[in-house]
Each structure stands twice: as C-alpha cells, then as structure tokens.
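Task card 7
Instruction: Convert sequence to structure tokens.
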Amino acid sequence: MYSTCCPVRALQLIKTKMERSSFVWVFLLLFSQASPSSAYIEGLYCGRENCYDILGVSRDSSKAEIGKAYRVLARKYHPDKYKGEDGTEKFQQIANAYEILKDDDERRDYDYMLDNPEEYYGHYYRYYRRRVAPKVDVRIVIAVTISVISAIQYFSWWSRYKSAIDYLASSPKYRIRALDQARRDGLLDTGKRKSKKSKEELKEEEDKIVRTIIEENADIKGGYRKPRILDVLWLQLLLSPYYIIHYIIWYVGWIWKFNILGKEYGLEEKYHIIRKFLGLSQTQFEALDEFEKKEMLAKELWIYENFKEYKQEKEEEMKAKLAESSRHKSYRRYMKKNGVGRMYFED
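Output:
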C-alpha cells in the first residue's frame, strides 16, 4: 500500500490517520454522552430503571393489574416491615413508578419515550410541562381571576365616589346649600328635641343629612360618579355579545343615515365626533365643563378642518402660558444646564 522507497512518508501518513480516527472516536463518545440513544434518561420518570420492571408488570398490563402489583410490593418493602438497608430507597422507587403508570397521560408520555429514545429534549419538555403546569382547572383560575378583578373594580369605584361625596360635604359652598334644603324640608331637629341631644349627636346627624342630600342632588360625572354593578368586568363579559350586536346595528345605522342619506348630525352625534377627535373616553368627555362643551359646539368642531384650527390654537395658548410661567422657565434653565447630552467633569 505504501511505497518502500519512502518509509518516513508512509509512517507520517499512518500516524495522521490514527490521530484522525482517535479524534472521531472521542467525538462519538462525547456525542453519545450529550444525546444518549438509550430509552432511559437520568432524572426523568424512573431514571435508568424501567418503571414496568420495577413493579413487575408488562406494558400491556391494565391499570388494575398495575395497582395490584404496587400494593403487593408496597406491603413487602414498607419501611416498617422491610429491614434491609435499601428499604426506604426501594419503597420510594416503587411508589414513583406507580405514580407514573397510574396516570394515563403520564404513562402515555413514558411509553412514547421508550419507543422514541432519539427525541431527547422533547422528553424533557413533556416531562416538566406536566409537573410545572397547575393542577387546578384553567377555567376555575380564569373565573377566580375575573371575580377578583371585578371586586377590586367595584370597591375602588365606591371608594372614589365616597371621597367625592366627602369633599362636597366638607366644602362650605355645598354644605350651606344642603343645610338650607334640610331646613326647608324639616329634616333638622329644632327646639326641645334639639336640646336633648349632645353636640356630637347633633353634628353626626347633621353630617348624615348633608351627605344624603348631596348624594340625591349632586351630578357627579367622570371617574368619581356613582358606581354601577353593570360596569364590573364579569357583567361586561357576559353582556359583551349584546354590546357587539348593539354596536354593529349602531354603526350600520350611522353609515345609512349620514353617509348614504346625507342627513345632518344631531347633538349626540356632534358630541360623539368631537370626543373621537379629542381622543377622550366617554367618562373623560362627561367630566368636561358644560361651558367648554358649548364652546366646542359653537366652533363646529365636528368638522375636521375646524378641529385642526382649534387644536392649533390650544397648542399656541399652552406655549404662551408655559413661556410666561416662572416654574417652566426654571425647568428649561435646569434642562439646559443639566439635561440630556450634557458632559460632566465632577468627582
């Protein structure tokens, strides 16, 4: 095979081939360790042991046969009866094998691992997916989550509404009006009935009457309005099909009435277009001052060209106010000296 006239060259070729072959064997050995072709993987299911062999059953055994085999072995190797050194370890191994094989889904995954040993990482995924996933039904988790959110919503709305009533009841302007109405309606105690009560009782009764009158007469809008049970998340989700159908009917009616027939906008439609141009929600728009809303109607802001001019005017007014504001001037001076892009040489 090699020429006799060049023995040194022949020896070098033999050495090179031996080095290459040894490298290939080392690579194959490392690869076999990284991705074992064996059906048993350390750390998964029963490790290097076969779960069926541990219980002494076959893959064709029924769940009843597996349970019977487990009870026999569990009595035999129970730590209270079996006194061998490996008793505890053997009992845990039997219990682990039974837990895997008694569950139909996990047994199916284990059989798939035995039949497809090459899907090394896929077995890890299926094994830990089942153990990390919650045991509780997902529907129950979703229902509880929605219920908690609904409760938090409702009570937070009541808290904001209560704070608004407290503010109005403590404001002299609204408190005096409420007391005047209470006197006209004869709700306040006078004369002998009043003298029999202490100052604290009279104050408490007066506060209660004032709050009641304010709640009945105050028109609170926006985020501090009185909460409605229909606004909570649960009922909104249950009523969502109705809202969707109602919106489709409204949208089709809008196109037919104004785009096709060309009718003029009413007051509600004008407010709707203005609110959309402003980018406000219904709650935010309701919180605006009535004078401001009438000003928007007077300027015909439902027409987009008029709205663009109005928006530009507001931006110019805001710039003028900021230019005159001493606080804004000091902020601009600070940003000029210490803002983004400045270079510092301080310690």
